[in-house]
Design brief:
hydrolase, 8 helices, alpha/beta, magnesium ion binding, six-stranded mixed sheet, HAD-like_sf, Rossmann fold, 2 domains, globular, Hypothetical Protein, Haloacid Dehalogenase-like Hydrolase, Chain: A, domain 2, eight-stranded mixed sheet, phosphatase activity
Length: about 270
């Protein structure tokens, strides 16, 4: 198959756990594949604003699939498609997370605003070298500037079930990254990275079968399944591996570089 678009998750895939940046070897390999004519997309739960300068080193993607599929952008960072929360959806999340004193942040174009639990976000993100551009939003007023298009919270799974029981009619779903983790993307009905891949392929004039997707977490599973070739890193979750067509090397120390050389040897 002549694959024409490579979609890459960041954390746990391009950027192994513990690394402050994408390893140089990974960045150089992705750039080599791009020079060979394959288009590159970053596919992440982060909003575009949460991908800081220098994180990707020399990688300059052709497309961005951000906020778990809710924000699609072109090379210049212009929105191609965006899916915002309604006021009812946003207020339900804020009320619920406040009631249970759980951390919750929303993604906007300029930053991620923690409406509850700002200090918890800063502490936990520092421990994982995430630097996700989080601001103190506990005044809870930034949605008056624009409605958010991404949400992330720390919630035990029984709390997620309690939310579904109370607000199931809204269709929101809590998508956890890994088994045992309490960190979850909160997405609108029908939105995930699989949706984002299909939408991005359509916008790029491609068949999803011409796409390679690479990821490691439960939140990558839909994308891996939607791609012509889904590759789960060797360190990936069981759900990601089950959805993938191929198991790749571990993310560390530079598994994406190894994978690029295997799939596109002509680029090297």
């Amino acid at each position: 198959m002549n694959y024409q678009l490579l979609l890459l998750d960041i954390d746990g895939t391009l950027r192994p756990e513990g690394c402050a940046q994408v390893p140089r070897e990974n960045a150089e390999a992705v750039c080599a594949v791009q020079r060979a004519g394959v288009r590159i997309a970053i596919a992440t739960g982060r909003g575009r604003t949460g991908i800081g300068k220098g994180l990707l080193r020399s990688i300059r993607p052709d497309y961005w699939l951000c906020a778990g599929g809710a924000q699609l952008l072109d090379r210049q960072g212009n929105d191609l498609e965006i899916h915002r929360f309604t006021p009812e959806e946003m207020y339900a999340l804020v009320d619920f997370f406040e009631d249970y004193e759980l951390p919750l942040r929303f993604t906007f174009h300029d930053a991620n605003y923690a409406y509850t639990g700002y200090e918890t976000f800063i502490r936990r993100e520092k421990a994982k070298n995430l630097n996700n551009n989080i601001r103190d939003g506990e005044d809870q007023d930034h949605h008056l500037v624009e409605m958010p298009f991404g949400a992330f919270g720390f919630a035990p799974r029984d709390r997620a079930e309690a939310f579904r029981q109370k607000y199931g009619y809204l269709g929101l779903h809590f998508l956890y990254s890994y088994p045992g983790s309490d960190g979850c993307d909160i997405l609108k009905k029908g939105i995930d990275k699989g949706y984002g891949l299909r939408a991005l392929a359509r916008l790029a004039g491609l068949d999803p079968a011409a796409c390679v997707a690479v990821g490691d977490g439960d939140n990558d599973a839909a994308m891996l399944q939607a791609a012509g070739l889904g590759v789960a890193m060797g360190n990936a979750s069981a759900a990601a591996k089950a959805a993938a067509g191929q198991i790749g090397p571990d993310a560390a120390p530079c598994g994406v570089a190894q994978l690029c050389r295997q799939l596109w040897p002509e680029a090297f």
